[in-house]
Amino acid sequence: MRLRTLRFVVLLLVFVWPACTPTADDGVTSDDLGDLGAAITARLDSLDAVSALYAKHLPTGREIAVRADRPMNTLSVIKVPIMVQAFRDHAAGRLDLDQRHVVEADDMRRGSGLIQTFAPGLNPTARGLVTQMIVTSDNTATDMIVELVGIDRVNELLASNGYRETRVKHTTGRLFLETWIRADSANAGLTPREVFERGFPSDSGAAQRSFEIEGDSTIWLGRTTAREMGRLLEQILNAELADEEASQEMVEILRRQFYSTRLPRRVRFQGVSVAHKTGDWPPHAGNDAGILFYDGGPAIVSVFTNQNRGDFFELEEVLGWIAQEIVEAWK
Question: Residue 286 carries which DSSP code?
């Protein structure tokens, strides 16, 4: 009888245990609430996209992790650590955020942002450039701030604070040049101004090349994981990367984000304030990472969707539902 029982236990372990044990690639949800994690995983898996999510309820420490350690294309979410470096440099006397910088013709970048709509000669402060880099995801402002702080120094900051995957890889100008190089290698010598004046390729193969660029990690604007970006937001909120005043200013800048079609999509009408940063390569990718402030919160949600082949509006709707479900469950 004992031998038969032992055989049954062994068989149970052989056939059941592997199905219940998380692996690095199976997207298993780690969730203190069970049903919430399952619901969020189902929503993400309904998308025809590569997705990852990390969420944390700060008052209780509850977490949800869905493929949260998978390296993802940040797109403009990588502008958050660039902002941190700018404020740290200001505190150290290396960068004066109140000093003005002339926007020259060669500084102009396409994509998101408003500075490109002005004639060259605009004279914003560095603080204004940082703000536009976040609230309108301005690419002109981004590359100007990157020039002031340096990609290597941002990555050194990340490495020194234990971030293994999160790195700035390229400027937006280099990324946009790549769209022309992929169309014709002879375009490798285009100047920043020529790239700006041309905009983006629109030939018959442009859409497929755009999809391939979004999925090519060698040309990503930045790399991160959902978990690491969530941790970065938590460190900003807790003033662990800059002093209290600078940290509060960074959170307030994130609160002023113009784009509200993802995490804030539904909850902003329910008294929830969201300090967040989006990242876009529509229709192929739509990311959002933010801090949700509400009664019973705050909670951090960091979600990435790359290589999307489905409806982009559905993608944004899913992110909106995820934020609402988290707020309702974690009150």
Answer: E
Residue 296 has pLDDT above 70, yes or no: yes
User: What's the sign of the alpha-carbon dihedral 237, 240, 242, 244?
Assistant: positive
CA dihedral 328, 52, 19, 60 (to 10 degrees): -40
Is residue 285 a contact partner of residue 214, using CB atoms and an 8 Å limit?
yes
Would you say 288 and 268 are in contact if contact means Cβ atoms under 8 Å apart?
no
Chain-centre distance of CA 211, in angstroms? 18
3-state secondary structure of 101: coil
Residue 320, φ and ψ in degrees, nearest 5:
-65, -40
CATH number for the domain including 109?
3.40.710.10
Q: Is it the case that residue 168 has pLDDT exceeding 60?
A: yes
Residue 5 domain-assigned? no
Residue 52's nearest CA partner among 76, 79, 82, 24 is 24
Range of the domain at 152: 30-329
Give residue 229's identity as a one-letter amino acid code: M
Query: Is residue 108 assigned to a domain?
Result: yes
What distance in Å separates the CA atoms of residue 300 and residue 204, rounded to the nearest whole number? 40
Residue for token digits 């052989």? Answer: 14
Q: Does the residue 267 lie in any domain? A: yes
Write out the DSSP string of 227-275: HHHHHHHHHHHTTSSS-HHHHHHHHHHHHT-S--SSTHHHHGGGT-EEE
* Bridging pattern class, strands 273-281 and 285-293: antiparallel
DSSP string computed for 197-216: HH-S--STTHHHHHHHHHH-
Would the pTM count as exceeding 0.85? Answer: yes
| Amino acid at position 239, single letter | A
pLDDT tens-digit map of 55-102 = 999 999 999 999 999 999 999 999 999 999 999 999 999 999 999 999
What is the spatial distance between Cα 122 and Cα 187, in angstroms, rounded to a whole number? 29
Q: Locate tokens 């990435």: which residue?
A: 304
What 3-state class would DSSP assign to 15?
A: helix
Buried residues in 53-80 as b, exposed as e (16+ CB within 10 A) = bbbbbbeeebbbbbbbebbbbbbbbbbb
